[in-house]
Write a structure and sequence with these properties.
Blueprint (H helix, E strand, L loop, with lengths): L1 H40 L35 E3 L8 E5 L1 H12 L5 E4 L4 E3 L3 E4 L6 E5 L2 E3 L14 E6 L2 E6 L3 E3 L3 H4 L3 H9 L9 E6 L2 E6 L2 E3 L6 E4 L2 E6 L2 E3 L10 E4 L2 E11 L5 E3 L3 E11 L5 E6 L5 E15 L3 E7 L4 E17 L1 E6 L16 E14 L4 E4 L6 E13 L10 E3 L1 E10 L13 H9 L6
Parallel strand pairs: 1-3, 2-4, 3-6, 4-7, 5-8, 6-9, 7-10, 8-11, 9-12, 10-13, 11-14, 12-15, 13-16, 14-17, 15-18, 16-18, 17-19, 18-20, 19-21, 20-22, 21-23, 22-24, 23-25, 24-26, 25-27, 26-28, 27-29, 28-30
Amino acid sequence: MKRDNSLCLVAFTAIMFLVFITTSVTSVEGRKQHFKKGKTHKHKKDKNNKGDCTAPDSSPPPAPLPGYGSYPTGSKIFDVLSFGAKGDGFSDDSMALLAAWKAACKMPGATVEIPSEFKFVIKPITLQGPCMPHLVLQIDGALLAPPKVGSWPKSSLFQWINFKWIHNFSIQGSGVVDGQGSQWWNPSDQIYHTQKKFKHITNWKPTALRFYSSFNVTVRDIKIMNSPQCHLKFDSSGGIKVDNITISSPETSPNTDGIHLQNTRDVEIQHSNIGCGDDCVSIQTGCSNVHMHHINCGPGHGISLGGLGKDKSVACVSDIVVEKISLLNTLAGVRIKTWQGGMGSVKNVSFSNIQVSDVKVPIIIDQYYCDKNVCKNQTGAVAISGVKYDQIIGTYTVQPVHLACSNDIPCIDVDLIDIQLKPSFTYRSFHQALCWNSYGKSQAPLLPSSIDSCLRRDGGSVKRIARSREHNVCF
């Protein structure tokens, strides 16, 4: 019995010894593996491995950081960083943006993400549809255009970021679209010779954001600045809404229109701040049913319809409402400008509740528009009818009203209602109100009082003459 007990004790001791040895070896191996993983984390290469420093691993990879790695299959967020963008303000991230766009374009309700705190240099690019509906470009970071004029290809001098054939699409976010256009405004001799050497066309300058043949588009909340030419352009489009955006470029930057509309219908522009070197909003031929309200404009050239009818072309503009606008230190207030010799019509236009402060000429119809020192006198004109100026109030620095209508086709049904314009205290040289070949009615209060006798009254004969000479080319 004692012998059996002794044998059991020896066996138990041997088993415990083996368990101890096994546990110790496992612990050592674990520490070795942990040490190796620590070395790998520090990106130190194994001397015996000349290629990838990480060994194949059958386990799933760790989840990426939110927004900056690959995204789960089926995700509707397409972050440009996940497509290879650097966002360092120097590298060309154009292909990454294009790849993210193409991927998002295929999924309904997708979002292309431009993340905050990054700057992405984008060369001239076209983001093209048709895409699945409700696509969003979320701009929270910065998109930067190439800063050097010579780096732009000749074929891309019309626009920087071009949206084509897009439906049910939105641009939104807290970020910035920066055209970096200063070299375009004041090109140096070196840049001029570089362009000439490579046959670049210096007269053409890119628009920052351009939409072509796009419908049901919303642009909101973003800032667009320092475009080489126009900041935001809609061409042959419809169902456009612009809300709460900021557009900014220096007063001295030439031809940098804020928003430019051409052949575009059903537009609303609201609650935005625009300061630039040309028209805050420019409405060109083919536009109708445009409503602008709650806009701060300045510096710039004001809110303009035209110039229309250049080179004897046909211009058709109708059903425009501009109201609740504030203009500060602008060249013009609200104006219609046409070239001599044009055809077509401008009709059913309302400018109301307009506040002006130190605006050179607040109210303008100019049918002798000329952007050169001298323009050739021509017969024919774009016919203007049904224009109402109501509650235009504030200060002017040169002239309160300038209505210069065509000798051939008078302006008819022009209303001046509640016009209260005082000369600015900071300027001393003023001109009287001018009304030439313009017919309509005025209604008090009117300041200066000379406005009351500015418009001619019409018994009907002038309207018949005007309409008989109006070319029936607009429908």
